[in-house]
UniProtKB/TrEMBL annotation:
GO terms for molecular function: magnesium ion binding; nucleoside diphosphate phosphatase activity; ribonucleoside triphosphate phosphatase activity. The active site is at R23 (proton donor). It catalyses: a ribonucleoside 5'-diphosphate + H2O = a ribonucleoside 5'-phosphate + phosphate + H(+); a ribonucleoside 5'-triphosphate + H2O = a ribonucleoside 5'-diphosphate + phosphate + H(+). Its EC number is 3.6.1.15, 3.6.1.6. Its cofactor is Mg(2+). It comes from Psychrobacillus glaciei. Has nucleoside phosphatase activity towards nucleoside triphosphates and nucleoside diphosphates. Pfam families: DUF402. It comes from the Bacteria. Coiled coil: none annotated. This is Nucleoside triphosphate/diphosphate phosphatase. Mg(2+) 1 binds at N87, D103, D107. Signal peptide: none annotated. Residues 18-156 form the DUF402 domain.
Amino acid sequence: MAIPTEGETIQIHSYKHNGRIHRVWQETMILKGTKNIVIGANERTLVIEADGRTWITREPSICYFHAELWFNIICMLREDGVYYYINMSSPFVYNNQRLKYIDYDLDVKVFPDMTYTILDEDEYEQHKMEMNYPKEIDGILDRNVEKLISWIKQKRGPFAPDFIEAWTSRYQFYKQLNE
């Protein structure tokens, strides 16, 4: 598998289980790229929905993807703190300057005080039936939600206190290089 290069700009493509495109983020700058972990950043990037609607992200975000975990984490840097939006998803694949994953509907929102809420359980149940998710997906996602909650409580990975500071600093460095 190819590995994105630090400092390069890529697209992020989210798909649904049926293979249809769900959402595309036009520009994300790579801050770290290994075979297992990709960390990127974007700010005011164009997002294209499956139905053709577009919108622009409001705040800078640090994005965390893992090739073995069934979730990805978007760290949104707002004036009142860092908000985290987690997509329960397949592990990522990367090729042709595109990071790709399957979105499995369930989301978790984490607030600056590290409280969290699980979202879209009804959407997951609906799509599970409509798209015939394999039975194994329930167990995989349950285990990964547990792992994610453990990370939140232990302040591991992107939830660690120094994660945002370190990667925001790296993002600023690459932005200045590209000016």
